[in-house]
Amino acid sequence: MKKRFGFAAGCITGMLVSISILLLIFFGNAGFNYVTGKGFKKDEGSQLLSSKVQDKIGFLNDIIDAYYVNYNDDESGMTNDDRIEGLYKGLVGSLNDPYSEYYTQEEYKQLSEATNGSFQGIGATLSMNEATGKCYIVGFTAGSPAEASGLQVGDVFYKVDGEAVEGLTITDLVKRVRGEEGTKVVLTMLRDGKEVEYTVERKPIDIQTVSVNMIDKEVGYMILGQFDSVTTEQFHEGLESLKSQGMKKFILDLRGNPGGNLDVVVKIADELLPDGRIVYTLDKAGDEKDYDGSDGKSLGMPMVVLVDGNSASASEILAGAIKDTKAGVLIGTTTFGKGIVQNVYGIGDGSAIKITAAKYYTPSGVNIQGTGIEPDIKVEFDSEQYLRDKTDNQLEAAKRKIKSMK
After folding, report:
1. Domain 28-34+207-404 has CATH 3.60.110.10
2. pLDDT at position 242 over 60
3. What are the residue numbers of the active site?
């Protein structure tokens, strides 16, 4: 537990207008729940699949069958199943919601594996620059094939196995990079405008989402990378490890944390905060659901929380609850601003849909969608200083603040 995550990734992504995701994890900045698809309410007013629409789909399909030159062409690789899956993806894609997505059986399997804390891949973290559409490496899972390969933070994805990735979504890029254990993927990256190529063997990746160390005899430091099913236990073990080493003051680093599972962040917040409201959600029908702390415990010591523009969704739930309850001081820059929650509905045939289903609100009733959470103390990250001598000025500000707290 003592090995520290490198923070260079989060520092660099703080300079980008980007959506950070762990490579090979599909939910991105999603605070989400797994739920069953049974028993949901059907909107009887929807006319989407009227007979007129179905007739038009049939007519379009007939034209494709009759005239599309690449159909049934072995080189195209397209199958009838691909076209059917394309219909499903197109329906969800028509929402123009970057957080809603249809998953094929294979994609849903990969999502489930990843959010359970392990998957087969290379173990890199990437961010997509929305303005340019380019995907960058922003970090690595400790001990992963990607970390050992020579790939570097800041490398831009250019080709995968010789095929250009321009125009691909993050999900599609992830699908190309993932693969079975023992197989290899050839990655052509752009570094300082020049092509560099690496062959990386895919291996099982166990995600370590929490890293801790003692800054001095009193101050404990934890980097919390994301909120997966494995995070609750890792967080508890990390916190207990710091306490056993004499921690009297706590710095929690949520910079670059893209979010994750709503139930997980609630459990973690419950361990840090006094009993009471942590977050609540409102769904389409206006129904409110409260998530309250009730374990009778709290951290009981001074706490500083580091945040930045890539602290999103579930990490904003935790930061917002800490700020509203005045349980700690937030230092850094304004968070990402994702105040919505996705539900994942299994469809029974192995596929699934992830859809934005609710808005969440901090204990004081604030929805931060599109605005983010303002830190109590604003400190811009000094990238030039970090590149020059590895000084993390935001962390240094946190150290100064925590030492003044009683």
Report:
1. no
2. yes
3. 313, 324, 338
